[in-house]
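Project outcomes to date are best conveyed with an example. Our students and postdoctoral researchers have been running inverse folding experiments weekly, and each run begins with a structure described purely in tokens. The record below, which covers 209 residues, was selected by the lab manager from last quarter's runs and is presented without edits.
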């Protein structure tokens, strides 16, 4: 297998209630899953191919919980990437050159019956884990805006996070709320649902701790 590693930041966004039951091995809030994710790679490589300062994203839907399969997956790639870099990003997003089920990307793609050809487009994002803010857009494909959860009485920001020492996606995140939509083969529109900021640090063997 090709050795690879990426390090950056990810925003995960789905249709579940704040906190997302899936993080605790429970069924999704509404019995099905709709998700959009944006990833910023600060430093990375795939074999001899550098992936520094590239972005990637995906949109996916599952008719039941993710682990029950039957999903549809839309990879989205940074138009700034050259052909080798696009191949590398797509391989990571679809679990190729990855130990069996070692990353969230590998799990998500394995649980999909349909993986569409990648959309190559401009991907712009601002992610701040400390302030729990995000504005992410894959032009013509997906957009997510996220912010802190607020107390419904006082309006004060609520800070909450999840610790998963053995997590296959992250070990610690910050939880917020978001609004998002995607178009094309995997389309959705979500309002005021679960958003998650976390350090993205993966290799083909899984999360680097």
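After processing, the design step wrote out the following sequence:
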């Amino acid at each position: 297998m090709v050795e690879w590693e990426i390090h950056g930041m990810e925003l995960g966004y789905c249709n579940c209630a704040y906190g997302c039951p899936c993080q605790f091995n429970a069924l999704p809030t509404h019995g099905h899953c709709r998700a959009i994710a944006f990833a910023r790679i600060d430093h990375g490589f795939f074999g001899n191919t550098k992936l520094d300062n590239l972005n990637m994203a995906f949109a996916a839907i599952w008719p039941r919980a993710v682990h029950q399969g039957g999903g549809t997956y839309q990879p989205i790639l940074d138009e700034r990437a050259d052909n080798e870099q696009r191949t590398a990003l797509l391989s990571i997003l679809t679990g190729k050159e990855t130990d069996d089920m070692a990353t969230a990307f590998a799990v998500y793609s394995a649980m999909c019956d349909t993986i569409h050809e990648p959309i190559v487009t401009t991907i712009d994002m601002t992610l701040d884990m400390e302030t729990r803010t995000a504005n992410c857009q894959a032009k013509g494909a997906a957009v997510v805006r996220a912010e802190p959860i607020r107390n419904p009485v006082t309006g004060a920001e609520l800070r909450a996070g999840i610790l998963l020492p053995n997590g296959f996606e992250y070990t610690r995140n910050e939880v917020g709320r978001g609004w998002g939509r995607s178009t094309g083969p995997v389309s959705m529109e979500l309002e005021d649902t679960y958003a998650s900021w976390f350090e993205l640090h993966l290799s083909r063997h899984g999360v680097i701790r």
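The longest helix spans residues 83-93. The chain has a mean pLDDT of 97. The training component of this project remains on track.
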